[in-house]
């Protein structure tokens, strides 16, 4: 009799766990728009060169400040406004005083949302010919580094379901002893 009761509890717990795990799949999620994307072409340019910056899924009518940020150099390139298709495409000129290096090209919205892409600035041809290439030097930075810590609703619900399933299974196993 005890074995039958234990099997019934385990079956009940497994069915409950499966329902909880499937719950996120049963609830439709409506998203206003997809993930914002910022691209730059070319992705390698010399100071004074021109780049084309494109934003996709940026939110119709939203205004952005476009900036170039490196370890020891920052410059505001200009402003962009997403059109009705939630996109913008603009051409900017890299400042002539921008030192060579790898930079973050950022589009910062009015609400503080930031989309980034990488841009490499190479020395001008004349500067490259005038100087030998020095060994790479790593400079520490006092700039804040931002890590994306957002999760989709599916990830949050999936993690919640996993925690609940673990708890239910733990209770079933504890009561079975």
Q: Keyphrases for this structure?
A:
single chain; 177 residues; alpha+beta; Immunoglobulin-like; three-stranded antiparallel sheet; 3 helices; 8 strands
Q: Provide the CATH topology of the largest domain.
A: Immunoglobulin-like
* Cα-atom radius of gyration: 26 Å
Biggest sheet: strand arrangement: 2-8-7-4-5
Structural class: alpha+beta
| Helix-strand string | HEEEEEEEEHH
Q: How widely separated are the two ends?
A: 15 Å
pLDDT averaged residue by residue: 78
The largest pleated sheet is described as: 5 strands, mixed
The percent range for strand residues is 25-35%
What would CATH call the architecture of the largest domain?
Answer: Sandwich
**Helix fraction bin:** 25-40%
Assign an overall shape.
Answer: elongated
Can you count the beta strands? 8
> How many domains?
2
Low-confidence stretches: 27-33
Count, helices: 3
Under CATH, the homologous superfamily of the largest domain reads Macroglobulin (MG2) domain
The CATH C-level name of the largest domain is Mainly Beta
Written description of the protein model:
- The structure is a single chain.
- With 177 residues, the chain is an alpha+beta fold.
- It folds into 2 domains: 2-27 and 152-176; 42-130, Macroglobulin (MG2) domain (Immunoglobulin-like, Sandwich), CATH 2.60.40.
- The protein has 3 helices and 8 strands; from the N terminus they run H-E-E-E-E-E-E-E-E-H-H.
- It has helices spanning 2-26, 125-130, 153-176; strands at 37-41, 44-45, 50-56, 63-69, 74-81, 88-93, 101-109, 114-121.
- It has a 5-stranded mixed β-sheet, with no helix packed on it. A 3-stranded antiparallel β-sheet has the order 1-3-6, with no helix packed on it.
- Strand 4 (63-69) and strand 5 (74-81) form a beta hairpin.
- The longest helix is centred in the N-terminal third of the chain and has 25 residues, at 2-26.
- The two termini are 15 Å apart.
- Mean pLDDT is 78; it is low at 27-33.
